[in-house]
Amino acid sequence: MIDWALQFALAATGLAIALCGWRLLRGPSPIDRVLALDTLYINVVALVILLGIQRRTPMLFEAALIVAMLGFAATVALARYLSRGQVIE
Fold it and tell me: How confident is the model at residue 31, as a pLDDT?
């Protein structure tokens, strides 16, 4: 049962990544693209965690943590750039 649930979760996460990528490329405004990028990195973290569960390796959990930290920093930097025009004051 767990194998079927993992396969379903991987497929759903892959679909979510594809839809976020589409919104990132075709977003009507820059703010929509930043939100799509934020959602995209969250989905990538979920995908890496699911692969870690499926392959039973703890190294992928550390990779998910690194992706989450870098994604958060990138989202904050892009939001600050869009709101103020500069990242560092």
Answer: 86
Average pLDDT value for residue range 17-41 = 92
The predicted model scores a pTM of 0.86
Q: Using an 8 Å Cβ cutoff, are 75 and 42 in contact?
A: no
Residue closest to 24 by CA, chosen among 11, 9, 41: 41
Total residues found in the chain within this entry? 89
Scanning 1-89, the segments in alpha helix (DSSP H) are 2-26, 30-55, 59-84
Q: How many CB atoms lie within 10 A of CB 78?
A: 18
| Whether pLDDT at 86 is above 90 | no
The chain-wide mean pLDDT, for the chain, equals 92
User: Residues 18-44, buried b or exposed e (16+ Cβ, 10 A)?
Assistant: eebeebbeeeeeeeebbbbbbbbbbbb
Are 24 and 33 within 8 A, CB to CB?
Answer: yes
